[in-house]
């Protein structure tokens, strides 16, 4: 009886947009047809147009690299920090609060700050200059701009990894470590044989969420580079936005968005399979 | 809590009083009030004040019409307008960015107001550029609110220090000025070549003044115009970061003293003035002495949407109201726009010498949609990709433009 509102909510607010977007991707939805409402079905035309553009493939590769390196560093930094925080040290709670700043600061702010940091005359180049290197055109050279956006994303995302892993580690019984210590296991052995295996469920959740979070990143890259220079930093999300709202080809943008969702599903599936093994 | 109840009570009294008066026939309320919804993306305080004043004046003069403004973010105006029209709830007026007007018109949702504008006295006095932006054959799809464009700001101090006696008027002089004023950490020139419409828009003054067109980017004229930009970056007269600077970043460089000149529009005048930089403005330098600067037009257009005939009529009335010269002058002044009407623009130029270069350029200024019509946004995207590839050294000027030209050819053939 009380399930009805929930079902209605799901249908209207969740399922309908997904299905609408999906059907849109099979229709010729441009400015003209969108208003008249006829938007004829034309099968896979939108998908063909999308994959025929080299920028699309650039965006696919970028999205994968972006996700891989972001998660790799976010997870490792988060993990090492969580290990550190298992021990007691002065100002621990203060540091804990500090670490959450990147996570609670709005992406809009963070992106603009990173844009300033990576400026040709910005602090990062001044740092390099003081050791006799540079200046590098961080955001103006496609080869640097892409890693620069990844660095920014790692900064934004690692506290999330840290806090979940930290909580996960605290739930591991202390007795296990004490027993291992008595048996003569050194620190890294204890990490390898106790922490890692017992942390697996948490890690799986962190990695799955991390994948979703990084594949859907949009604002950060849009503000830092707008997908440029020379389309070098486009992710699928920024590319779909450009096709949809700058070129106003809604059908093709929906097709790109659908492919993006498929990519997330595939990645998560691959993770599940790997973790089962 | 207490004051709240009081307020409610007073309100009830008002209603009672109102209905009593109406009943007695003392208040001559109009039979029906038509509401005109206006969708726009103006968010600067001065612009909002101007809009509110306009509403007040118009409603006072037309008690049977109400104006209702709806704010929409810049990037969403076109899609929102289309959406509203698609569900048969079109706004009365949409203030559309001029390069998008013909494209939206192609969707068949804009009303042809040629009969109405013919009645507006000033129509014949509208500059050819803004006219082209709203005209398709014999059809007229809107009335420009006002125009803006690009000119060259220069820092008097940085130029004098570098021994440049007069602001540049030709490309050679501009390059020379840039080379002389470039001295770490100061760059000779700043412009925006970011991966948005801003890049194409900022390059167009150079492309068009050189006789080129976006529809034929493989031409020699286009190559020379892009080579000019590429050389500035290569020689270090302009920062490599130009490919990442939007039009908000560029004035910051200029105000901060890291750029001796910049390509910028009149909307930044107030900002630059406030900063205390001793600056001057000249028309966009041209390829050769004596040639005319051709700059792209910015600015929005009042467009009437097809819908209820009463609302349409009221919307047209509103647009006509905005075009009365004195009122128009006031709107444009607060918007920091140049009026699209010659006689009004000339007055603005005389009253404000800083606006004069922008006014002087209006005669030869072009609407962006004159390159490719409704397909301008697609074409512009291809062009800016070429600009960015060439500036970052991903491709030579020739190759980058050749690729873009091919892409544009296929867009035009569709």
Give the topology, please.
The complex is a heterodimer of chains A (about 280) and B (about 425).
Chain A: H1 3-24, H2 31-36, H3 45-52, H4 54-84, H5 92-99, H6 101-104, H7 107-117, H8 123-130, H9 142-170, H10 174-182, H11 187-198, H12 200-215, H13 219-224, H14 236-246, H15 250-276
Helix pairs in contact in A: 3-15, 4-9, 4-12, 9-12, 12-15, 14-15
Chain B: H1 2-24, E1 34-40, H2 45-61, E2 65-71, H3 77-86, E3 93-97, H4 101-106, H5 114-119, H6 128-134, E4 135-136, E5 139-140, E6 143-144, E7 151-155, H7 156-161, H8 171-181, E8 187-190, H9 197-209, H10 220-234, H11 249-255, E9 259-264, H12 269-275, E10 279-282, E11 300-304, H13 309-322, H14 325-335, H15 342-351, H16 356-361, H17 376-391, H18 397-413
Parallel strand pairs in B: 1-2, 1-3, 8-9
Antiparallel strand pairs in B: 3-11, 4-5, 6-11, 7-9, 7-10
Helix pairs in contact in B: 2-14, 9-10, 9-17, 14-15, 17-18
Care to describe what's here?
The complex is a heterodimer of chains A (about 280) and B (about 425). By secondary structure, chain A is mainly alpha-helical. Chain A has a single domain (about 55-245), classed as Orthogonal Bundle (MetI-like fold). Chain A is built from 15 helices and no strands. Chain A has helices at about 5-25, 30-35, 45-50, 55-85, 90-100, 100-105, 105-115, 125-130, 140-170, 175-180, 185-200, 200-215, 220-225, 235-245, 250-275. In chain A, helix 4 packs parallel to helix 9 (about 140-170) and helix 4 runs antiparallel to helix 12. Chain A is globular and about 75 Å long. Chain B folds into 2 domains: about 30-145 and about 300-335, Periplasmic binding protein-like II (D-Maltodextrin-Binding Protein, domain 2), CATH 3.40.190; about 150-295 and about 370-414, Periplasmic binding protein-like II (D-Maltodextrin-Binding Protein, domain 2, 3-Layer(aba) Sandwich). With about 425 residues, chain B is α/β, with parallel strands linked by helices. In chain B, helix 9 crosses helix 10 (about 220-235) and helix 14 crosses helix 15. Chain B has 18 helices and 11 strands. In chain B, the strands form 3 sheets. Chain B has a 5-stranded mixed beta sheet with strand order 2-1-3-11-6. In chain B, strands 8-9-7-10 form a 4-stranded mixed beta sheet. In chain B, strand 4 (about 135) and strand 5 (about 140) form a beta hairpin. The longest helix of chain B has 23 residues, at about 1-25. In chain B, about 50% of the residues are buried. The N and C termini of chain B lie far apart (about 65 Å). The interface of A and B includes residues 31, 121, 142, 226 and 230 of A.
């Amino acid at each position: 009886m009380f399930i009805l509102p929930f079902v209605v909510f799901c249908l209207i607010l969740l399922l309908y947009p997904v299905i609408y977007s999906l059907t849109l991707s099979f229709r010729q939805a441009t400015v003209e047809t969108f208003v008249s409402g006829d938007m004829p079905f034309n099968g896979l035309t939108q998908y063909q147009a999308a994959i025929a553009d080299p920028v699309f493939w650039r965006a696919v590769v970028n999205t994968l690299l972006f996700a891989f390196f972001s998660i790799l560093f976010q997870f490792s930094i988060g993990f090492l920090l969580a290990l550190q925080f298992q021990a007691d040290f002065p100002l621990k709670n203060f540091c804990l609060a500090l670490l959450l700043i990147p996570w609670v600061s709005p992406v809009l702010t963070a992106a603009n700050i990173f844009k300033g940091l990576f400026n040709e005359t910005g602090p990062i180049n001044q740092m390099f200059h003081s050791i006799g290197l540079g200046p590098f055109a961080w955001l103006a050279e496609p080869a640097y701009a892409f890693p620069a956006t990844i660095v920014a994303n790692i900064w934004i995302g690692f506290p999330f990894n840290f806090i979940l892993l930290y909580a996960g580690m605290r739930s591991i019984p202390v007795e296990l470590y004490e027993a291992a210590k008595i048996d003569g296991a050194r620190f890294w052995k204890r990490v390898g044989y106790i922490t890692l295996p017992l942390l697996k469920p948490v890690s799986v959740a962190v990695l799955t969420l991390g994948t979703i979070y990084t594949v859907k990143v949009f604002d950060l890259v849009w503000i830092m580079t707008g997908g440029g220079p020379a389309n070098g930093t486009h992710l699928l999300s920024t590319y779909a936005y450009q096709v949809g709202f700058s070129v106003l080809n809604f059908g093709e943008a929906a097709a790109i968005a659908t492919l993006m969702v498929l990519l997330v599903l595939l990645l998560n599936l691959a993770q599940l399979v790997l973790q089962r093994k | 809590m207490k004051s709240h109840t009081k307020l409610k009570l007073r309100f009830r009294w008002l209603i009672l009083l109102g209905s009593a008066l109406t009943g007695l026939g003392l208040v001559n309320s109009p039979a029906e009030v038509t509401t005109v919804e206006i969708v726009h993306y103006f968010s600067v305080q001065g612009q909002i004040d101007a809009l509110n004043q306009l509403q007040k004046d118009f409603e006072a003069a037309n008690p049977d019409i109400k104006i209702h403004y709806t704010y929409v973010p810049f990037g969403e105006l076109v899609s929102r307008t289309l959406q509203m029209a698609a569900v048969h709830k079109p706004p009365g007026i949409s203030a559309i960015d001029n390069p998008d007007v013909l494209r939206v018109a192609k969707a068949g949702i804009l009303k042809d107001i040629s009969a109405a504008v013919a009645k507006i006295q000033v129509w014949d006095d509208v500059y050819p550029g803004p006219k082209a932006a709203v005209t398709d054959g014999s059809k007229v799809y809107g009335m420009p609110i006002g125009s803006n464009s690009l000119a060259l700001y220069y820092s008097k101090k940085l130029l004098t220090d570098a021994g440049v006696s007069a602001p540049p008027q030709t490309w050679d002089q501009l390059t020379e000025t840039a080379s002389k004023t470039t001295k770490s950490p100061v760059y000779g020139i700043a412009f925006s070549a970011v991966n948005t419409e801003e890049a194409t828009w900022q390059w167009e003054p150079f492309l068009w003044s050189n006789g080129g067109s976006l529809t034929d980017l493989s031409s020699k004229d286009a190559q020379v115009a892009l080579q000019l930009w590429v050389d500035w970056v290569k020689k270090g007269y302009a920062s490599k970061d130009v490919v990442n600077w939007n039009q908000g970043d560029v004035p910051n460089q200029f105000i901060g003293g890291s750029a001796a000149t910049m390509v910028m529009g009149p909307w930044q005048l107030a900002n630059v003035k406030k900063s205390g930089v001793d600056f001057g403005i000249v028309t966009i330098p041209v390829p050769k002495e004596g040639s005319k600067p051709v700059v792209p037009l910015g600015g929005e257009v009042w467009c009437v949407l097809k819908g209820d005939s009463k609302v349409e009529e009221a919307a047209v009335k509103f647009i006509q109201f905005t075009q009365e010269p004195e009122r128009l002058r006031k709107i444009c002044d607060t918007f920091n726009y140049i009026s699209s009407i010659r006689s009004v623009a000339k007055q603005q130029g005389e009253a404000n010498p800083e606006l004069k270069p922008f006014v002087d350029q209006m005669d030869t200024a072009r609407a962006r949609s004159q390159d490719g019509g409704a397909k301008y946004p697609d074409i512009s995207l291809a062009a800016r990709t070429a600009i960015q590839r060439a500036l970052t050294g991903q491709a030579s000027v020739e190759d980058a433009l050749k690729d873009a030209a091919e892409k544009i050819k296929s867009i035009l053939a569709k």
